[in-house]
Amino acid sequence: KPLALYFAAVSYQQKNDSDNTIVYAERTLEADPQHYQAMLMLAGLIAARTREFDLDREEKLKAAEGYATKAIEILKTAPRPNPNVTDEQWNMAKQDFNSQAHEAFAMAALARNQNDKAIEEFKTSIAMATANDPTTVVRLAAAYSKAAKYDDAISTLDKLLATPDLHPQVKKVAEGERNRAVQLKQKGAAPAK
Predict the structure, then answer these.
(1) Distances from the Cα of 116 to the Cαs of 41, 62, 164, in angstroms?
(2) Taking the model in full, what pTM does it have?
(3) What CA–CA distance (Å, rounded) separates 160 from 44?
(4) Which residues contact 83 (CB under 8 A, 6 or more apart)?
(5) Going by fewer Cβ within 10 Å, which terminus of the chain is more open, N or C?
(6) Alpha-carbon separation of residue 152 from 129, 138, 166 (angstroms)
(7) What integer best gives the mean pLDDT of the chain?
(8) How far apart are CA 25 and CA 21, in angstroms?
(9) Could you report the per-residue pLDDT of 69-80, keeping only the tens digit for each?
(10) pLDDT digits (tens, 9 = 90+) for 29-84
């Protein structure tokens, strides 16, 4: 049952249906309270959807951070999900799961305007991941811009944009974020809200 519910959550996530993704991820946790993948899904989604001026901002962000923290704890002793998975593959998967948790922490920090904390968490997420996730790099650059560290934002995006075979949609967003950082730097503007 938890597997079926989790796959439903994943399907809704792929359709960009956040509300149903949350419903099915929560149902997954009702069926299996130790389902760290559902926790990470909820942590990331809730943190990403929470805005600075939401009336229930702290409640949402504490929930997101709670899911991420609990997932990290469970992963410390979690057994391999399948006997065909090697120890090396499982350790790499756990690194990626921990990376997702730190990205959720970063998104929560951004919603609280804790830009330096967000930058550090995004860096941790990128460093832990076994493969580079360009969307996380774009979010890191946005955090740099929000902290008025425009040169760091621009250089981060320049490195990303030099990546061969970058997905066109990610490239477009990265170019837009870079242009914004350049404009803010030229204006000497205050950090973007």
Answers:
(1) 24, 19, 29
(2) 0.88
(3) 22
(4) none
(5) C
(6) 21, 12, 20
(7) 93
(8) 6
(9) 999 999 999 988
(10) 999 999 999 999 999 999 999 988 889 999 999 999 999 999 999 999 998 888 89
Let me know: does 101 contact 40? Beta carbons within 8 Å: yes
| Three-point CA angle 104, 73, 1, nearest 5° | 85
Pair of tokens at residue 5: 């519910």
Residues in the chain: 193
Q: How far is CA 104 from CA 64, 81, 141, in A?
A: 7, 23, 16
Pair 47, 111: CB distance under 8 Å: yes
Give the pair of three-digit tokens for residue 26: 């929560």
CA dihedral angle for residue 100, residue 102, residue 107, residue 112, rounded to 10 degrees: 160
What's the alpha-carbon Rg for the chain, to the nearest Å?
18
The amino acid sitting at 55 is L
